[in-house]
Design brief:
With 138 residues, the protein is mainly alpha-helical. It is 53% helix and 0% strand. The chain is built from 6 helices and no strands. The longest helix is centred in the C-terminal third of the chain and has 27 residues. The protein is elongated.
């Protein structure tokens, strides 16, 4: 392995150590030269779909189409979607969704426990004030 001198012109930090320690932003020519690849050879392709609800279906369709069909350089395709590549991030997002539901349920439970409905706020305050006036005048 031969060491090469590169000039760093900037640092991109995501604060996700898996990305920061793994990825390098550079031009394709340098990557091809470092890996001894042909000009049109790459190690991966990222596709964007319009309908996120079809992510699993689209991943499966692409995997079926490319399964057991190596590229012209002999490399086999490996199809992964964004959720499969970043399970920690999507697990964290799932926890956030659960937390939102827990907070909403606690808020609704507190209101029900105290017998308060959203429309009752104004009326309860008014009745409380009237009772204070009645009791105060006796």
């Amino acid at each position: 392995m031969r060491a090469r001198r590169l000039k760093i012109v900037g640092i991109y930090q995501t604060n996700f150590s898996e990305y920061d320690n793994l990825f390098l932003l550079t031009d394709l020519y340098l990557v091809n030269r470092l890996n001894n690849w042909e000009p049109d050879q790459v190690s991966g392709v990222e596709l964007e779909i319009r309908d996120y609800d079809k992510l699993e279906e689209t991943t499966y369709e692409i995997a079926v189409d490319t399964d057991e069909n190596p590229d012209r350089y002999g490399a086999e395709y490996c199809v992964r979607n964004v959720e499969q590549l970043n399970p920690q991030i999507f697990a964290w997002l799932g926890i956030l969704d659960v937390n939102i539901w827990v907070i909403l349920i606690l808020m609704i439970g507190w209101r029900v426990h105290h017998g308060i409905r959203p429309a009752d706020y104004h009326h309860r305050a008014y009745l409380h004030d009237r009772r204070a006036e009645v009791f105060g005048s006796q």
